[in-house]
Amino acid sequence: xxxxxxxxxxxxxxxxxxxxxxxxxxxxxxxxxxxxxxxxxxxxxxxxxxxxxxxxxxxxxxxxxxxxxxxxxxxxxxxxxxxxxxxxxxxxxxxxxxxxxxxxxxxxxxxxxxxxxxxxxxxxxxxxxxxxxxxxxxxxxxxxxxxxxxxxxxxxxxxxxxxxxxxxxxxxxxxxxxxxxxxxxxxxxxxxxxxxxxxxxxxxxxxxxxxxxxxxxxxxxxxxxxxxxxxxxxxxxxxxxxxxxxxxxxxxxx
Length: 254
Ligand code: 13P
Fold this sequence. Notes:
- The protein is an alpha/beta fold.
- An 8-stranded parallel β-barrel has the order 1-2-3-4-5-6-7-8, surrounded by 5 helices.
- It has one domain (5-250): Aldolase class I (TIM Barrel).
- It has helices at residues 16-30, 47-54, 80-86, 96-101, 106-118, 131-135, 139-154, 180-195, 199-204, 218-222, 239-252; strands spanning 5-9, 37-41, 59-63, 90-93, 122-127, 163-166, 206-210, 229-232.
- The chain starts with a strand and ends with a helix.
- Helix 1 runs parallel beside helix 2.
- Helix content is 44%, strand content 15%.
- Bound molecules: 1,3-dihydroxyacetonephosphate.
- 1,3-dihydroxyacetonephosphate (13P) binds at residues 9, 95, 167, 172-173, 210-213, 231-235.
């Protein structure tokens, strides 16, 4: 049985005051939760602060990006070693916002995956199709291509203790989540695609759904057999909504 993971991606939101309020509430709401792993990924400047706030809790620290280099003349970048030193464990890569606004390609993202694995960190690899690709029936082909970049570079074994987040771009921040059946079909495809190379790895890999997950739709999404939690944007900024999502995952996946 896979233990679900619900992760909050704060994106470019927050402040120290907000982080203090949100983390304090989350710690209270989520104390004693054991059926679901939980992580939050604040903006990089707040990582150290949030890590200290989380010190006595079961909530893990995540980050939203990493560079492929460990050190050197790469202005503005952050290395896997730095993230590790600060206490982050789950690192989002390949998010569609970075693919779009920073022109990150599959090969570069696969290199980030490699850097994270080499440093004992958990990659949270985001994949997913655009609205036009969805309408053109290319969802599976897009997801396969994004997965294959990692499989070609590192082999399917690299997905051991890694996370995949299926985030259809048309569902992100739109309030228009994929239906549970729609998401399940793609999650099943993702697992089967990896199983073609390594059935054991495919069975254990966590596949989160992301895209307008909220306190109202989470429980139904989690009833689907291949949906192992969620990567949550907007609703992760509200402690009560995020806690409802975590509790839904813990309950449904028991
Ligand atoms: P929303 O939950 O705001 O749609 O964002 C999803 C997302 O992009 C998480 O990485």
